[in-house]
Specification:
Largest sheet of chain A: 8 strands, mixed
Distance between the termini of chain B: 37 Å
Number of helices of chain A: 11
Distance between the termini of chain A: 28 Å
Radius of gyration of chain A: 20 Å
Shape of chain B: globular
Number of strands of chain A: 12
Strand order of the largest sheet of chain B: 6-7-8-3-9-10-12-11
Structural class of chain A: alpha/beta
Low-confidence stretches of chain B: 1-6, 29-37
Order of helices and strands of chain B: EHEEHEEEHHHHEHEHEEHHEE
Oligomer: heterodimer
Strand content of chain A: 15-25%
Strand content of chain B: 15-25%
Bound molecules: adenosine-5'-triphosphate, adenosine-5'-diphosphate, iron/sulfur cluster, magnesium ion
Chain lengths: 322, 343
């Protein structure tokens, strides 16, 4: 496929200024998402998944700075757009589901109204049709008794129901690019399947491209086309979902898989990943940020990382891949 | 299990019988209209049946998993047992003592308070940002147990060791701790007053898989050492299967199936449980034995019809009988129960 991807992130680097120094949170991050494709972004917490999403959406907090890179979307570089044009795109073309749904909802506005607001602002609905369309969205995310639940305030709903409201808001305007930050954490697996099917439907019908941030590798493997693995602000591996699951090549990807609860293992057999993320404030960070935790380290590993192609659309940044 | 524990009364630790919680819902305007209309008899306000006549037990030292669709009433049930919420009706007996009669608002000062403790989903959010880890752990001990300053200090150090929290982190504030460290503080704090029942509402949902493994192993080890019972709420069925002895499956306020975890996972009987287990994400497509997708609309939890099965309409096995008669929870094998006419 040589079509232009819906989103192409190239060489993205982000730094945060903190009291204790500059943190190099993302370094040379690059990946793309095709039209209609769902790409999972996985990795431990702190690996830079959310910051990647915030940078693309142009909503990094004030201490954060993009120091290099581009995010090409519909012929324009999102990182170079001015605030007004970006705001225009957000909500209509670009949509994001945040971690922590409860805090993202307005606590004193009925949930049906909150969806209707978005439909009016970005979805071309009129004040008159918006309430009906909002109820339709509640139905799609399988909220029981949507007519009456539209009248509820967030505190009257369970955690998972608030989550579904957020998803309904994000999907209401049929965005061209959806960034979903752990959208199904806190949902039961049947509801999760409904949400994933809904994302799949919009991808199929409307060609929506999705970046799906998750720490559930089995979920990523089942529903996503490709998986991108992040570690300490680097992309260490990117591969078709099933292939990554069956044959992880980066030592870190393999460890992540081994820590995922599966069908056969017992708790005693499961292993956590030794060590932690390196301190990203260090000025002498090694070329491979996983080297401090790696069991396969070689002498070459201090040299700048190679990008090795392991198969079709399968790349790994490692001197000694599995 | 240990020789020091006093002879405990026979019977289960927790015995829940016909427990119900209904919330009144409806707009304020509705309330006002009803209050001012003196011509018609006042229609009752709509009632949301969050927990509906639920009965089950938890044995001493047993780990019971509670699973079900989001919004089915798990957290409400937990808040009833934990006495943060007053039940509409029913009984909550803990080691023979009836707790349902105490008011939630006074329960903080109740001598039974220490017997049930809770670990919350988001360890970060449930910790006071201005308390150090040591303060957070000490807080329930100060409120519920009498101890001298020196004893308290020793106890905190002991709890840190038990939960694998390095002692040098005790003086840190929550924002200076990692997710896994905060989870350890939450657990240390909950076990500080030696509860008999520990309730965990999605304790690892906010954690990485790698940290989750360590926390689950810690929970399993603490249970062995301290002989506590666990009520474990989780959406991660693989985790429930790894950790729990028995599992309760809820659907729209009702327990629809229960039994030993291994049996329920290997051979689910209720159509909802079947759908649930078949939806566990499965990386290898060959391993999937046909997924059951639930069609139809979920029934409303507001004033539900007491003669219709709650799963009717979405159930692939539903028949007209299911719309005329509510299935009751009945035995289905030595240690199992299921609420379905056809299971
Ligand atoms: N304060 C309240 N007022 C009205 N309804 C409420 C209130 N609290 C909970 N409910 C309703 O009770 C039902 C059960 O909610 P509960 O929080 O127990 O669900 P849950 O099973 O824990 O879901 P989740 O898995 O999403 O956390 C839901 O329909 C919810 O909307
Ligand atoms: N506002 C901020 N100031 C300083 N550092 C930040 C800020 N936001 C995020 N970071 C740092 O960026 C890194 C990546 O964070 P994040 O993208 O949230 O991780 P993930 O989403 O993968 O869990 C972490 O080391 C985090 O501490
Ligand atoms: S580059 Fe070397 S140290 Fe880094 S992950 Fe690969 S083998 Fe390990
Ligand atoms: S009683 Fe009928 S509707 Fe209810 S679960 Fe059984 S078959 Fe399905
Ligand atoms: Mg994040
Ligand atoms: Mg809940």
């Amino acid at each position: 496929m040589s079509a232009v991807p819906a989103l192409a992130v190239e060489d993205l680097s982000v730094e945060f200024r903190t009291r204790s120094g500059v943190v190099k949170v993302l370094e040379h991050v690059g990946f793309s998402v095709d039209k209609g494709e769902t790409v999972a972004l996985v990795g431990e917490s702190g690996s830079g998944k959310s910051v990647t999403a915030f940078a693309v959406m142009g909503i990094l907090d004030a201490a954060g700075k993009v120091t290099s890179g581009r995010a090409m979307f519909g012929g324009a570089d999102l990182l170079a757009l001015n605030e007004h044009d970006l705001a225009e795109q957000r909500g209509r073309e670009l949509s994001m589901i945040f971690q922590n749904p409860r805090t993202a909802l307005n606590p004193i506005r009925r949930v049906g109204r909150q969806i209707a607001d978005v439909l009016v602002r970005h979805g071309g609905a009129t004040r008159n049709d918006a309430p009906r369309a909002a109820i339709e969205m509640l139905k799609k995310v399988r909220i029981p008794d949507p007519e009456r639940r539209a009248e509820a305030y967030p505190f009257e709903l369970s955690g998972g129901m608030c989550q579904r409201i957020m998803i309904a808001i994000a999907l209401a305007c049929r965005p061209a690019l959806l960034i979903a930050d752990e959208p199904t954490t806190g949902l039961d697996v049947t509801t999760q399947a409904v949400i994933m099917d809904l994302i799949g439907e919009l991808a199929g019908e409307a060609g929506m491209a999705t970046i799906f941030i998750t720490h559930d590798l089995a979920l990523a493997a089942e529903y996503c086309d490709r998986i991108v693995v992040m570690h300490a602000g680097h992309i260490v591996e990117a591969a078709p979902a099933r292939e990554l699951f069956a044959h992880p090549r980066h030592p870190y990807s393999a460890k992540l898989l081994a820590a995922t609860p599966g069908e056969t293992v017992s708790l005693a057999d499961m292993a956590s990943i030794p060590g932690g993320l390196p301190d990203l404030r260090r000025t002498d960070l090694p070329a491979c940020r996983y080297s401090g935790r790696c069991e396969r380290r070689l002498d070459e590993c201090t040299q700048p990382l190679p990008q090795r192609t392991m198969g079709e659309r399968h790349v790994v940044a490692c001197w000694n891949p599995l | 299990m240990t020789g020091e524990t006093p002879a405990s009364p026979p019977g289960p630790l927790l015995d829940i019988a016909e427990l119900a919680k209904r919330f009144t819902v409806g707009s304020k305007q509705g309330l006002l209209a009803r209050a001012t209309s003196f011509r018609k008899p006042v229609a009752p306000l709509p009632q949301l049946h969050a927990v509906d006549e639920v009965s089950f037990t938890i044995g001493r030292g047993e780990t019971v998993g509670l699973v079900g669709e989001s919004g089915c009433g798990k957290s409400t049930l937990v808040r009833l047992i934990n006495r943060l919420l007053d039940p509409t009706s029913g009984s909550i007996r803990l080691g023979g003592a009836e707790l349902a009669d105490f008011k939630a608002r006074d329960f903080a000062a109740n001598p039974h308070r220490a017997r049930i403790q809770m670990v919350f989903q988001d360890a970060g959010d449930s910790l006071n940002p201005r308390y150090t880890a040591a303060d957070a752990i000490a807080d329930p001990v100060r409120r519920l147990k009498k101890m001298s300053g020196a004893q308290l200090k020793a106890r905190i150090a002991e709890l840190a060791d038990m939960t694998g929290l390095p002692r040098e982190l005790l003086q840190r504030f929550p924002h200076q701790l990692s997710g896994g460290q905060k989870a350890r503080v939450g657990i240390a704090r909950a076990i500080a007053v030696e509860p008999e029942l520990l309730i965990l509402d999605e304790p690892t949902a906010a954690l990485d898989v790698s940290v989750q493994v360590v926390i689950l192993q810690l929970l399993q080890q603490l249970k062995r050492e301290l002989g506590m019972s666990y009520l474990f709420v989780s959406h991660d069925l693989n985790v429930v299967r790894l950790l729990c002895d028995r599992v309760l499956v809820m659907y729209l306020g009702k327990v629809v199936e229960q039994g030993p975890a291994a049996e329920v996972f290997a051979d689910p009987k209720h159509p909802y449980t079947k759908a649930l287990i078949s939806a566990i994400p499965q990386a290898e497509p060959e391993q999937r034995v046909g997924r059951l997708r639930l069609g139809g609309e979920p029934r409303s939890p507001i004033d539900p019809d007491p003669t219709v099965c709650r799963f009717y309409g979405r159930c692939p096995k539903g028949t007209p009988r299911c719309a005329e008669e509510m299935p009751l929870l009945r035995p289905a094998g030595p240690a199992r129960q299921v609420a379905c006419h056809f299971a």
